[in-house]
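RECORD TYPE: protein structure
NAME: Amidinotransferase
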Amino acid sequence: MPRRYVMCPPRHFAVDYAINPWMDPNAPVDPALALRQWGELRDTYRRLGHLVDEVEPQPGLPDMVFAANSGTVVDGRVLGSRFATRERAAEAEHFRRWFVENGFRDVTMPREVNEAEGDFAWTGRVLLAGTGFRTDPRAHAEAQEVLGVPVVSLKLLDPRYYHLDTALFVLSEATDDRAAHVAYYPEAFSPGSRRALERLFPDAVLADAADASCLGLNAVSDGRNVVLPVEAGALAEKVAAHGYEPVFVDISELRKAGGGPKCCTMEIRK
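PREDICTED:
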């Protein structure tokens, strides 16, 4: 099915600070290359038949390109974000304004820290909610109240996989006659969360350390096409074996800030 995505061009992209293990302010960054890679990702979505809206980037907010962290939308209801780090805090208001200016009427800004689709993954029936590094576990209950959907909490253990979307993605959402299908990296999760995932998704695609280390799980699936980093060849073979079509993109420059295809992509679900 055609999807609607929200993205933000990295016209002010830089790595000026370190708020996750992927970021090194002393390493060289090529902003022009980051912008080209982002443009190729956007154009890939459009070639696949999806609608992409763009939010205007703001000076002084180099991570605003990672639009997934600024809103969660289910059935037209919007839960905004509240960032854990001061460096990104101002992004939330710019995205709130975008929602209001684009006709969204049911917009709630959270009281608790939540980094939106960075830590929230909609499966069609339940919202998987990560915690451990960014999103406050109290935000999971807030998301349930605001969005009106059941929430399953999952604890992350490895600081390299500081958001849920670096360790898990939804391959296909649940329908009336089909369960949701996900891919994830088991070692990123606490033992209890791992057992919960095994119960919920017994046929999940399990990624290995190499898949995870290139942010291969920071992928976007429309239920058929799976857009993922070009380095994630082993993961691509696994999802292809389940009938999906891997679509490779190069996000090497954006990965220097700890992001990949999903980080750049917020989904609008109405």
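COMMENT: The CA atoms of residues 174 and 180 lie 4 Å apart.
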